[in-house]
Amino acid sequence: MSTSEGSVSYKKADASYFEQRHLSRYAGIWSLWALGVGAVISGHFSGWNFGFATGGWGGMLAAGAIIAVMYLGLTFSIAEMSPALPHTGAAYSFARTAMGPWGGFITGLCENVEYVITPAVIVTFITAYVNSILGLDAAYSPIVWIVFYAIFLGLNVFGLELSFKVTLVVTVLSLAVLVFFWASAIPNMDFSRWALNIGVGPDGAAIELPEGGGEWFPFGFSGVLATLPFAVWLFLAIEQLPLAAEESVDPKRDMPKGIILGISTLILSAFMIVLLNPAVAGVGAFHLGSSLEPLLDGFRAVYGDGGVVLLGIVALTGLIASFHTILYAQGRQVYSLSRAGYFPTALSLTHAKYKTPHVAMVTGSIAGLLVMMVIWFALGAAEGGAAIGSVLLNMAVFGAMFSYIMQAISFIMLRINQPDIERPYKSPLGIPGAVLTIVIAVVTLYYQVQDPNFSKGVLWVAVWFAVAIAYFAIIGRHKLILSPEEEFAIAHAGGGVGPGSEEPAPAE
């Protein structure tokens, strides 16, 4: 039976439709904590450090604090929305309830870019480490990509319990590596000599001060703002946690706790790594401003090059943790949009035995790999390998920033327009916290645009958006399914599912 709401049409699916798309519940507070922290932790191993070249040490610290405020506003908002709307759709589900089907779909597209592309970015970093450790020729990089995708897709597909156990182990191991580094760095740090060894040259670019003793903010306040995009990598992807809502044992109780524990852990870790990594004698902020492996550089400075293979393997843990957990998020994000009919419904089929969204995970991974292969072979191995990281990274961050803005707007609209929704947890920052998230995200986007590599990423995101929106406008909006999050949104908009319709199918 079909019904309509505005410009979209819904089909009433029978019980067998949802049985073929069933998820299992397993995750508790610590599984959720590991999922959130594990997704982000690679950003503490590499990527964030490029901010030293634009802001100096003080600029990086200040930018990190500003971005932490943005993520606090965001995470407190989703900590309120997720138990109130405990569906796998997460950002799409929030926006769907607040802004209708088109708002939900656009928000889902933003997250889709982030979760399909981010694993591709991380696997390029993993490959660089593996090539260095094993002495492999970079020409074989595509083979390494495929091997890592295959291994961690397997771990994600063959059982939810296995996936969460792997997530917990690699996340704890990654944090243990960071704690070990902090303990190693503290007795070997000379803050003024090394962390403050950046000055400004006649052309306005960073120069090395051989004796250190530079200013905390060599580039002034504009340098702080220019550093915001790099600080994002210290927290990017914590927002994926609500995608596990339908696999959480008690999302109304555990989801807020998992989110808040996760962001608290990440803020502490981010502060320690920004403080200690550049201050280690022999490293320095100037060198880290262009380093691809800042944590490994720190270990080398303390322990020498003798154990470089072992140290390289140790440094891989954070990258592997994030790769594994974001593959999980990718599958759930594609699954949720597919189950509701925004994407082709075949993508939301779950494994008959393991009840994991294997079709969504495999399809999303193939899409990410195809993008990488196109860049690799179109530009040639050398140039393509260098371009993959910068282009895909900017695509992922672009999608993430827009999804943050849409989620914060959703939070504000739900607070104002639907105050009677049951809220097991309420954000202590409220609407002001969501407004801060929007403002900081917009400023960060503005400074990302200043990066010449950014325009390439935006172009490809625009192409993907155009294709997806055309599909939805022509086909998808007439094939929506009354999934749990869609029924919830329609019911709380006051319209029910239409006169004479059948009783809604129960949420899974």
From TrEMBL:
The chain crosses the membrane at residues 26-45, 57-79, 140-159, 166-186, 216-238, 259-288, 308-329, 359-379, 391-416, 428-447, 459-476. Its main location: membrane. Keywords: Cell membrane, Membrane, Transmembrane, Transmembrane helix. The keyword Transmembrane helix applies. GO terms for molecular function: transmembrane transporter activity. GO terms for cellular component: plasma membrane. Pfam families: AA_permease_2. It is found in: Cell membrane. It is a multi-pass membrane protein. This is Amino acid ABC transporter permease. Coiled coil: none annotated. It comes from the Bacteria.
